[in-house]
């Protein structure tokens, strides 16, 4: 009876989906979610996104993005929706859309774009996902597979059902290439109808491809997985025949030319935060400053500081070892030694009580299985700063990296008054290239903490070997 009930439910869902018409193609789609449900889903997910990721609140930038986005959405296949374009305060190179017209672009991606047409390409692509209801179709497919998994499990056992659940998880992992190509096609169409050159989409693709190459190089040095942009960036090689056909077709729709001088875009983003936000703390060279936490740290010159949303990581050369700093509230009156002994159940040895920046602290080695790690605890302002250092490579001895771990730990102290300025974020500035300027010379004067020359090249579309031209206006970081 359970199996029959599930099959009847499946039949009802399938018959309901026959009434759904895709706003873009005008054809019937397999969609189990009504437009009202889609809009409510977008509202819910939007609140969750903004709970964990702050919006970038500079009025000039956010109003500009909303204006460009609105102009594209008004001539889209779903102009009846109210679209919300949010700039997120994240240095990551990314953009994405939620059901119902919620679209996000990170300031990190905006920094590497150089014209309004490129911005329109990104926003148009994400609008395309919304107008074609791609997320709703993916969720509907997952719902069907979940229902099938229950039906199969009821009929033949749980293992087959588990396989279907795995399939539904894969569907939600990202859009397929056909959906991405359709979003490209729609984005190019919306751009062209407004008068933007669809070359902006190819320029954006070039920017993102360069970033992908750089990200792979960095990941290789760190010994970590490469993170890439989810959309046009990962879906097409630069010479993709289908993408070029889509763009050529869209360009025919352009009846007028919209003036999109790149200088106007550059002036719009001048002053925008680049890299770390003040809330996350600021990296400058081999130092780290955090105003709210009131801390300064220094790493060895050849180590890299990686600032993540959840922790601060100091990476040894070639990624062979790391020291991670995390912060939590202190909830019990005890010493750093007692806290660490309690948390590790007495597995520490060679422990020592120390003072760091006038704060009570304790450092020790931690034996965990066959590996030994460096750990330190600092109590400051009712907060617990935990340092954990370990090697990522089996067989490497803690002594090979412990000196570096202790250099970082022992540098812990509060900010001096003159250093509070250093805890303010880096910002994009416009600079007119002078005779004799090179990326190498500009990098030496830059405040970018890691790979300054490569990042300046990426910011200005000259990665990896382009040259500066005297008189050109470029982006630098101060």
Q: What does the model show?
A:
- By secondary structure, the chain is of the alpha+beta class.
- The chain folds into three domains: 2-269, no CATH class; 280-420, Protein Transport Mog1p, Chain A (3-Layer(aba) Sandwich); 433-477.
- The chain is 43% helix and 20% strand.
- It has 16 helices and 16 strands.
- The strands form four sheets. Strands 8-9-10-14-13-12-11 form a seven-stranded antiparallel sheet, with helices on both faces.
- A hairpin with a 5-residue loop joins strand 9 and strand 10.
- Helix 3 packs across helix 5 (116-131), helix 5 packs across helix 9 and helix 8 packs parallel to helix 11 (241-251).
- It is globular, with a radius of gyration of 26 Å.
- The N and C termini lie far apart (69 Å).
- Residues 6-18 and 147-172 have low confidence and may be disordered.
Task: Estimate the mean pLDDT confidence.
Answer: 86
Distance between the termini: 69 Å
The main sheet comes to:
7 strands, antiparallel
Summarize the amount of helix as a percent range.
Answer: 40-55%
**Secondary-structure class:** alpha+beta
- Strand % is 15-25%
Which descriptors would you attach to this protein?
single chain; 478 residues; alpha+beta; Protein Transport Mog1p, Chain A; 3 domains; 7-stranded antiparallel sheet; 3-stranded mixed sheet; 16 strands; 20% strand; globular
Short description:
The protein is α+β, with helices and mostly antiparallel strands and about 475 residues long.
What is the element layout, followed by pairings?
Elements: H1 2-17, H2 35-52, H3 59-73, E1 84-88, E2 95-98, E3 102-106, H4 107-112, H5 116-131, H6 134-156, H7 158-171, H8 177-194, H9 199-222, H10 232-235, H11 241-251, H12 262-269, E4 273-274, E5 282-284, E6 287-290, E7 295-298, E8 304-307, E9 312-315, E10 321-329, H13 336-344, E11 348-356, E12 359-368, E13 371-380, E14 383-391, H14 402-410, E15 426-432, H15 439-445, H16 452-459, E16 473-477
Parallel strand pairs: 1-3
Antiparallel strand pairs: 2-3, 4-15, 5-6, 6-7, 8-9, 9-10, 10-14, 11-12, 12-13, 13-14, 15-16
């Amino acid at each position: 009876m359970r199996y029959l009930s599930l099959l009847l439910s499946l039949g009802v869902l399938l018959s309901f989906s026959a009434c759904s018409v895709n706003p873009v193609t005008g054809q019937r789609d397999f969609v189990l979610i009504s437009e009202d449900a889609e809009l409510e889903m977008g509202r819910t997910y939007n609140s969750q996104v903004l709970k964990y990721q702050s919006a970038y609140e500079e009025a000039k930038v956010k109003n500009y993005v909303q204006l460009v986005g609105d102009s594209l959405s008004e001539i889209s296949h779903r102009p009846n929706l109210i679209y919300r374009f949010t700039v997120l305060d994240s240095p990551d190179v990314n953009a994405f859309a939620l059901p119902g017209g919620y679209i996000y672009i990170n300031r990190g991606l905006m920094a590497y774009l150089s014209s309004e047409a490129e911005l329109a390409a990104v926003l148009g692509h994400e609008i395309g996902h919304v107008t074609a209801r791609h997320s709703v179709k993916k969720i509907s497919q997952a719902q069907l597979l979940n229902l099938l998994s229950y039906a199969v499990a009821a009929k033949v056992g749980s293992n087959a059902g588990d396989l279907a659940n795995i399939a539904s998880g894969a569907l939600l992992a990202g859009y397929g290439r056909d959906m991405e190509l359709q979003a490209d096609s729609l984005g190019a169409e919306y751009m062209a109808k407004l008068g933007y050159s669809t070359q902006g989409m190819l320029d954006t693709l070039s920017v993102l491809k360069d970033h992908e190459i750089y990200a792979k190089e960095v990941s290789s040095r760190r010994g970590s997985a490469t993170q890439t942009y989810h959309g046009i960036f990962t879906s097409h090689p630069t010479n993709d025949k289908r993408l070029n056909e889509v763009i050529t077709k869209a360009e025919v729709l352009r009846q007028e030319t919209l003036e999109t001088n790149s200088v106007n875009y550059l002036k719009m983003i001048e002053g925008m935060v680049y890299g770390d936000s003040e809330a996350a703390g600021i990296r400058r060279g081999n130092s780290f400053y955090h105003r709210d936490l009131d801390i300064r740290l220094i790493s060895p010159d050849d180590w890299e500081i990686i600032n993540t949303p959840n922790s601060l990581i100091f990476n040894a050369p070639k990624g062979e070892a790391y020291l991670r700093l995390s912060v939590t509230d202190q909830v019990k009156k005890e010493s750093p030694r007692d806290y660490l002994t309690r948390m590790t159940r007495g597995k520490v040895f060679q422990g020592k009580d120390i003072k760091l920046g006038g704060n009570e602290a304790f450092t020790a080695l931690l034996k965990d299985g066959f590996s030994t790690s460096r750990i330190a605890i600092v109590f400051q302002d009712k907060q617990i700063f935990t340092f954990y250092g370990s090697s990522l490579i089996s067989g490497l001895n803690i002594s090979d990296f412990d000196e570096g771990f202790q250099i970082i730990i022992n540098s812990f102290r509060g900010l001096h008054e003159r250093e509070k300025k250093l805890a303010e974020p880096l910002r994009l500035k416009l600079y007119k290239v002078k005779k004799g300027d090179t990326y190498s010379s500009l990098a030496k004067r830059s405040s970018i903490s890691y790979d300054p020359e490569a990042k300046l090249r990426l910011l200005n579309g000259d990665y990896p070997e382009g040259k500066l031209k005297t008189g050109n206006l470029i982006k630098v970081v101060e």
